[in-house]
Amino acid sequence: MREFVARGVAAREAASGMTEMNLKYRTMSPREAKDQVFVTCMPWLDFTSIQHPMASLSTPDIPSLAWGRFRAGPDGLQLPFSVQAHHGFVDGWHIHLLGRQVAAELADIIR
Hints:
Blueprint: H1 2-16, H2 18-27, H3 30-33, E1 38-41, E2 64-67, E3 71-73, E4 76-78, E5 81-84, H4 92-110
Parallel strand pairs: 1-2
Antiparallel strand pairs: 2-5, 3-4
Protein backbone atom coordinates (compact mmCIF):
# COMPACT_ATOMS: atom_id res chain seq x y z
CA MET A 1 0.00 0.00 0.00
CA ARG A 2 2.85 2.39 0.81
CA GLU A 3 4.43 1.80 -2.59
CA PHE A 4 1.05 2.33 -4.27
CA VAL A 5 0.54 5.65 -2.48
CA ALA A 6 4.11 6.78 -3.19
CA ARG A 7 3.71 5.98 -6.88
CA GLY A 8 0.34 7.73 -6.95
CA VAL A 9 1.82 10.88 -5.43
CA ALA A 10 4.71 10.77 -7.90
CA ALA A 11 2.29 10.30 -10.81
CA ARG A 12 0.18 13.21 -9.57
CA GLU A 13 3.28 15.40 -9.50
CA ALA A 14 4.25 14.31 -13.00
CA ALA A 15 0.70 14.90 -14.28
CA SER A 16 0.67 18.40 -12.82
CA GLY A 17 3.20 19.25 -15.53
CA MET A 18 0.85 17.96 -18.23
CA THR A 19 1.99 20.66 -20.65
CA GLU A 20 5.49 19.20 -20.58
CA MET A 21 4.15 15.69 -21.03
CA ASN A 22 2.09 16.74 -24.03
CA LEU A 23 5.06 18.56 -25.56
CA LYS A 24 7.21 15.44 -25.09
CA TYR A 25 4.55 13.29 -26.79
CA ARG A 26 4.38 15.70 -29.74
CA THR A 27 8.15 15.48 -30.26
CA MET A 28 8.17 11.67 -30.42
CA SER A 29 8.62 9.95 -33.73
CA PRO A 30 5.58 8.00 -34.96
CA ARG A 31 7.34 4.77 -33.88
CA GLU A 32 8.09 6.13 -30.37
CA ALA A 33 4.50 7.32 -30.01
CA LYS A 34 3.23 3.81 -30.77
CA ASP A 35 5.27 2.40 -27.88
CA GLN A 36 2.93 4.18 -25.43
CA VAL A 37 0.06 2.75 -23.42
CA PHE A 38 -2.58 5.06 -21.96
CA VAL A 39 -3.61 4.17 -18.40
CA THR A 40 -6.08 5.88 -16.10
CA CYS A 41 -7.56 5.03 -12.74
CA MET A 42 -10.90 6.09 -11.32
CA PRO A 43 -10.88 4.54 -7.84
CA TRP A 44 -14.09 6.36 -6.89
CA LEU A 45 -16.06 4.87 -9.81
CA ASP A 46 -17.58 1.38 -9.89
CA PHE A 47 -18.07 0.78 -13.62
CA THR A 48 -18.94 -2.14 -15.85
CA SER A 49 -17.92 -0.46 -19.09
CA ILE A 50 -16.27 2.74 -20.27
CA GLN A 51 -15.17 4.11 -23.60
CA HIS A 52 -11.76 5.72 -23.85
CA PRO A 53 -11.14 8.84 -25.91
CA MET A 54 -8.56 8.22 -28.60
CA ALA A 55 -5.63 10.52 -29.31
CA SER A 56 -6.15 10.10 -33.04
CA LEU A 57 -8.93 8.28 -34.79
CA SER A 58 -6.66 7.64 -37.77
CA THR A 59 -4.19 5.63 -35.65
CA PRO A 60 -6.15 3.62 -33.05
CA ASP A 61 -3.21 1.36 -32.22
CA ILE A 62 -2.29 2.60 -28.72
CA PRO A 63 -4.08 0.53 -26.05
CA SER A 64 -6.04 2.32 -23.33
CA LEU A 65 -6.45 0.76 -19.89
CA ALA A 66 -8.56 1.88 -16.94
CA TRP A 67 -9.41 0.50 -13.53
CA GLY A 68 -12.02 1.60 -11.04
CA ARG A 69 -13.21 1.11 -7.47
CA PHE A 70 -12.68 -2.24 -5.78
CA ARG A 71 -15.87 -3.95 -4.65
CA ALA A 72 -16.96 -7.12 -2.92
CA GLY A 73 -18.10 -9.81 -5.32
CA PRO A 74 -19.49 -13.33 -5.03
CA ASP A 75 -15.98 -14.81 -5.29
CA GLY A 76 -14.13 -12.15 -3.30
CA LEU A 77 -12.75 -8.79 -4.24
CA GLN A 78 -13.53 -7.50 -7.74
CA LEU A 79 -11.86 -4.72 -9.69
CA PRO A 80 -13.42 -3.02 -12.72
CA PHE A 81 -10.79 -3.14 -15.46
CA SER A 82 -11.27 -1.86 -18.99
CA VAL A 83 -9.07 -2.46 -22.01
CA GLN A 84 -9.63 -0.74 -25.33
CA ALA A 85 -7.31 -1.91 -28.08
CA HIS A 86 -7.44 -2.36 -31.83
CA HIS A 87 -7.86 -6.02 -32.71
CA GLY A 88 -5.20 -5.66 -35.38
CA PHE A 89 -2.62 -5.07 -32.64
CA VAL A 90 -3.80 -7.22 -29.76
CA ASP A 91 -5.88 -10.36 -29.55
CA GLY A 92 -8.47 -11.26 -26.93
CA TRP A 93 -6.08 -13.93 -25.67
CA HIS A 94 -3.50 -11.27 -24.79
CA ILE A 95 -6.12 -9.26 -22.90
CA HIS A 96 -7.09 -12.45 -21.06
CA LEU A 97 -3.45 -12.99 -20.08
CA LEU A 98 -3.19 -9.39 -18.87
CA GLY A 99 -6.34 -9.82 -16.78
CA ARG A 100 -4.96 -13.02 -15.24
CA GLN A 101 -1.67 -11.28 -14.40
CA VAL A 102 -3.48 -8.33 -12.80
CA ALA A 103 -5.65 -10.74 -10.78
CA ALA A 104 -2.59 -12.73 -9.64
CA GLU A 105 -0.73 -9.62 -8.54
CA LEU A 106 -3.78 -8.30 -6.66
CA ALA A 107 -4.17 -11.69 -4.94
CA ASP A 108 -0.52 -11.47 -3.82
CA ILE A 109 -1.12 -7.98 -2.42
CA ILE A 110 -4.22 -9.11 -0.52
CA ARG A 111 -2.43 -12.07 1.08
